[in-house]
Amino acid sequence: MTKSVHVQDKITLVIGGTGKTGRRVAERLAARGVSVRVGSRSGEPGFVWEDPGTWEPVLEGVGSVYITYYPDLAFPGAAEAVGAFARVAVDRGARRLVLLSGRGEEGARISEDKVKESGADWTVVRASWFAQNFDEGFFLDSVLSGEIALPTGDAVEPFVDADDIADVVTAALVEGGRHIGRTYELSGPRLLSFDDVAAELSRATGREITYVPVTLDAFRAHLTENGLPLDFADLFDLLVDGRNAHLVHGVREAIGREPRDFATYARDAADAGAWKV
């Protein structure tokens, strides 16, 4: 493989490089011979979204950045932080920015625009809900308990595998070219209800896992009890109003293959011991 200039001479910064997609992107970049710096609170130097004083040190020598924002781009203050960081990154010499965004999130579009306005060579990756939320994220405890209680009714979602997201992001960072100025929308290959998800997880784990629809008020009370932001409840609007209840083909467009199915994800995660009780 012929390496691009930034692969040879510049560092790629992966913000959230210990998270679901960032960890995978960092691993893939390293495997391609790219010099990688993880942007996180525990990194060297440390990176904190809420502390702009940490931004310039982590950008030293960086030519490209994978930008992820926690907890979500739709949350208050995200667009201002992402926009300010993008400007600092470009001023410090980072020409290539790839932003992880969310499908159907109107608030996230503001952050996308801020990155585009920074003057960088940009790519936006809009992802459906992650399959890995069930073993690495928000829904893990529910799966372990055997009951997934959510305010989603009979809504459907084309869950996307974080490995597919990482493959697309890695291609955009390393290959540049045709990926510059593109917005890729990513989904899995089929729509699943949460009943479908519970059935797939039951098959993969050999345990009975059920889905129980609850009211939004009950879910908000659960968030409060567990010290989680109430803004998380608003994200379920993306499911229940049907705006994302269709397949998109960004994985194929970006890297020329079909996305992984949820059943494959569930089987692999179970084999790896993700849901051992």
Which helices and strands, and how do they pair?
Layout: H1 5-9, E1 11-15, H2 20-31, E2 35-39, H3 55-59, E3 62-67, H4 78-91, E4 96-102, H5 106-116, E5 121-127, H6 140-145, E6 147-150, E7 156-157, H7 162-175, E8 182-186, E9 192-193, H8 194-205, E10 210-213, H9 216-225, H10 231-234, H11 237-240, H12 250-255, H13 262-271
Parallel strand pairs: 1-2, 1-3, 3-4, 4-5, 5-8, 6-10
Antiparallel strand pairs: 7-9
Walkthrough of the structure:
By secondary structure, the protein is an alpha/beta fold. Residues 1-8 have low confidence and may be disordered. 41% of the residues lie in helices and 17% in strands. It has helices spanning 5-9, 20-31, 55-59, 78-91, 106-116, 140-145, 162-175, 194-205, 216-225, 231-234, 237-240, 250-255, 262-271; strands at 11-15, 35-39, 62-67, 96-102, 121-127, 147-150, 156-157, 182-186, 192-193, 210-213. The radius of gyration is 19 Å and the shape is globular. The chain has a six-stranded parallel sheet, sandwiched between helices. Strands 6-10 form a two-stranded parallel sheet. The protein has a two-stranded antiparallel sheet with strand order 7-9. The chain has a domain at 5-130 and 160-188 and 245-259: 3-Layer(aba) Sandwich (Rossmann fold). Helix 2 crosses helix 7 (162-175) and helix 8 (194-205) packs parallel to helix 13. It starts with a helix and ends in a 6-residue tail after the last helix.
